[in-house]
Amino acid sequence: MVSDQQMDEAIMSVLSDRNGHWVKVAWVVVSAPAKLGSHFPSGHAGHELVAKRIAYLVGEGFLISKGDITNWRFSEIRPA
């Protein structure tokens, strides 16, 4: 299984590719698992894990969000 730190690094890596611009949560949820390798769950299960981790990072102030992040296609995040 992948650690929280590895998941955080994958999420931040996807965001760093966008140079601080707002990024759709859906894009991060779909893109981050590819950076985590074959030990990370694929499909919906993996996407849900990334979404939960994004919610944690927003709650802790590591990410800034616009919109309801549970509605992936209509919300955005960026590093704090």
Shape: globular
H and E string? HEHHEE
What is the number of E strands? 3
User: What strand line-up does the widest sheet have?
Assistant: 1-3-2
Task: Give the secondary structure arrangement, pairings included.
Elements: H1 4-16, E1 23-24, H2 25-31, H3 43-59, E2 63-66, E3 76-79
Helix pairs in contact: 1-3, 2-3
Verbal overview:
- With 80 residues, the chain is an alpha+beta fold.
- The protein is built from 3 helices and 3 strands; from the N terminus they run αβααββ.
- It has helices spanning 4-16, 25-31, 43-59, and strands spanning 23-24, 63-66, 76-79.
- It has a 3-stranded antiparallel beta sheet.
- The relative contact order is 0.22.
- The model has no long low-confidence stretch (mean pLDDT 95).
Key phrases:
80 residues; alpha+beta; three-stranded antiparallel sheet; 3 helices; 3 strands; 46% helix; globular
Short description:
This protein is of the alpha+beta class and 80 residues long. It has three helices and three strands, in the order αβααββ.
